[in-house]
Specification:
By secondary structure, this protein is an alpha/beta fold. It has one domain: Zn peptidases (Aminopeptidase, 3-Layer(aba) Sandwich). It is 30% helix and 18% strand. The chain has eight helices and ten strands. It has an eight-stranded mixed beta sheet with strand order 3-4-6-5-7-10-8-9, sandwiched between helices. A two-stranded antiparallel sheet has the order 1-2. Helix 2 packs across helix 4, helix 2 crosses helix 8 and helix 6 packs across helix 8. The longest helix is centred in the middle third of the chain and has 20 residues. The radius of gyration is 19 Å and the shape is globular. It binds zinc ion. The site of zinc ion has 4 residues, from loops.
């Protein structure tokens, strides 16, 4: 079954005419390639739309294009990697199990003094009822509007008892958001009782729950947390205030290839690429493209500008995805740095819009 995934990948890259096929691992895919027959032109490298304006320095070395002279963001990649290690060490973390509860506590312990909200409910699934809890950390800004960054922290119920720990899938996304919280906290002054607003839009970090299917990925068995949150935010008017929503998923792979997920808003995908160029990281972005279903979909489908930052080319032929081989030794601090810095730079570019 795993071979089919890469053939899809290759088909998308070279021909672009794959029919609807679920991803690897018995169809219990976390994020699904679902191309439509004859859907489009052949794709390979990013098109001219992303071609960089490369200039040359005095020494002849190329310098990536830069929008301005603002300092480049830098996360603490060592710390983010350590978070990933600690999150992974909890073991399987499916909705409602003991390890999941410990991880909820771990996340909240790292967000002390922040403005935290819960979106908790019970999901009715084909495998029974599960408690679901999205954790929201709000960093108010001076501009009217919200930038949302999400990452899921659950692992798959159907992989329970297999030794699956989801270092990249679930671990890296949880960790990068914890590091984003550090960076956002560090960028504001004032005490926790009256924190200063950040200079830009409000940024909300969301650790999403129930991203994974409990049995087999379908529209109703997947994205439990974000489907609920999108509904909630539609009712209370939050959706209209969101300027951009970005999902971080599987961003720790040492061999990092962020896919241009065409289930997303073009200008935002382009802006992420511009940010990557500014950091000199563009070679890790968009060599592959295709439609992938992930946590951004319930918002994207409601008209929110959305992008999914994901590397679904995890190991040769995506072999580590949703297997007990998704472990820390496949990841690198550098990859967390590449994806983390790029998204923080994207936030800075968004603030200027
Ligand atoms: Zn997954």
């Amino acid at each position: 079954m795993k071979v089919s995934a890469i053939s899809i990948l290759l088909t998308i890259v070279t021909v672009g005419t794959a029919s609807t096929i679920a991803c690897s691992n018995g169809g219990s895919a976390h994020a699904r390639w679902a191309t439509t027959a004859g859907s489009g032109a052949p794709v390979s490298a990013p098109s001219g739309a992303y071609a960089s304006e490369v200039t040359t320095s005095a020494t002849g070395a190329p310098i990536p294009a830069s929008a301005d002279n603002a300092p480049l963001p830098h996360i603490n990649a060592k710390r983010a990697f350590q978070y990933t290690r600690e999150v992974t060490a909890f073991g399987e973390r499916y909705m409602g199990n003991e390890n999941h509860k410990k991880l909820e506590r771990y996340i909240l312990d790292h967000l002390k003094g922040d403005q935290i909200e819960d979106d908790a409910f019970t999901a009715d699934t084909v495998e029974g009822k599960f408690p679901v809890r999205n954790i929201i950390d709000k960093f108010p800004g001076t501009k009217d509007g919200i930038i949302v960054i999400m990452g899921h922290y659950d692992t798959n119920y159907w992989l329970r008892g297999t030794g699956y720990v989801g270092a990249n899938d679930g671990g890296s996304s949880t960790a990068i958001l914890l590091e984003f919280a550090n960076q956002l906290r560090g960028a504001r002054s004032g005490d926790s009782a009256s924190p200063k607003k950040r200079d830009g839009y409000s940024v909300w970090l969301v650790w999403t729950d129930g991203e994974e299917a409990v049995k087999t990925w379908t529209d109703t068995d997947s994205l439990y947390g974000t489907r609920h949150l999108a509904e909630t935010w539609e009712k209370d008017g939050t959706l209209k205030k969101i300027k951009a929503l970005m999902v971080m998923d599987m961003i720790g792979d040492a061999d990092l290839d962020i896919i241009r997920n065409t289930n997303g808003t073009s200008w935002l995908l382009d802006l992420i690429y511009t940010a990557a160029e500014r950091m000199g990281y563009q070679s890790h972005f968009y060599a592959l493209q295709g439609p992938i279903e992930d946590d951004h979909l319930p918002f994207y489908n409601r008209g929110v500008p959305s992008a999914d930052v994901i590397d679904l080319d995890y190991g040769y032929h995506n072999v580590f995805h949703h297997t007990p081989q998704d472990t820390m030794d496949k990841l690198s601090p550098k990859s967390l740095e590449i994806s983390g810095d790029t998204i923080l730079e994207t936030v800075r570019l968004l603030d200027q819009r």
